[in-house]
Amino acid sequence: MDDDVAGRPVEAPRAFDLARAEAAVRELLLAVGEDPERDGLRDTPARVARAYAEMFAGLGRDPRDVLTTTFDEGHEEMVLVKDIPVYSQCEHHLLPFHGMAHVAYIPAKDGRIAGLSKLARLVDLYARRPQVQERMTTQIADALVEVLGAAGVIVVVECEHLCMSMRGVRAPGSRTVTSAVRGQMRNPATRAEAMSLIRPR
Ligand SMILES: Nc1nc2c(ncn2[C@@H]2O[C@H](COP(=O)(O)OP(=O)(O)OP(=O)(O)O)[C@@H](O)[C@H]2O)c(=O)[nH]1
Ligand SMILES: [Zn+2]
Asked: Which of the residues 93, 160, 184, 193 is marked catalytic?
């Protein structure tokens, strides 16, 4: 057992079981009435297993391994990285949701800032899991507070959920917007400034 950023116990990272995933995909093909031995499908179970290993590579990974490179710049103003691509999967249907994340933070009083790419890596770490968009948004914000010590954070995520587009309600083009706001970013003027940078009129 390890601890997560808030000190709660989390399971140690588990190695992805490729053989098990491959067997499951083969079963699924049989269940839908396909022939997994036919030429075009012969390598599909192994291929899909490898794809899932990649798409769920964020499981069991720790934000502390991502927010590694920080700089003492004495910068106490807002930093925003916007339009970070998000590719995740909803845990209800295991179908993709994808779109953009916008991450802004106000550094701690000592002005410690993160390498910019680390914000995109953080989004990726939480996206590569079976997810719910609301939880992913919260996790990104909490990691910036708890690991980087940010004095304020706002995370806005806007995604299209394919479970709502290609099946079910069939509302293609609908987008879900979620946000998480922490610390000094709750100040209405600061929050408004962040939102105007994220969504210029
Ligand atoms: N809040 C939230 N809901 C999600 C997310 N991704 C998928 N869902 C929803 O999860 C719900 C699952 O509902 P169920 O009624 O159990 O499943 P379902 O019969 O397949 O539902 P429909 O999609 O309405 O056909 C659906 O309303 C999805 O739109 C997400 O990231 N956040
Ligand atoms: Zn879904």
From this structure: 93
